[in-house]
Amino acid sequence: MSTQPPGSGATPPPSFGGPPPSQPGGAAPQDQAKGFIAALFDFKFDHFVTPKIVKAVYLVMTVLILLGALVTFIVALSTGEGIMILFALFVVPIMAIIYLALARMSMEMYYAVIRMSEDVHHRLPRA
Prior knowledge:
Blueprint: H1 29-40, H2 50-79, H3 82-123
Helix pairs in contact: 2-3
């Protein structure tokens, strides 16, 4: 494993977390808001909506999962039966965590596919 001294002219590997090279600094907030509405009515599918709404969709899914778990927890406790109390204490929280993990993985998968598609789209030669 060789390391190069600073200032040797070697370029660092590309960063996969930042914006594409053709868009330094990312888009301005007004462009993003305009881009969301424009992307909804883009029938050529040149722009993607998923990266703009994935956070909101995950937030809604999280709230719904937690509300469902809370209602199930309260209903199970209100029965007063021993097996239902154990269900409320052990199964409901575990299932809520599993559903939350599945929701997160789904959102990450959709987002990753769109990011790969955008990357491929930016790297293709212009016709």
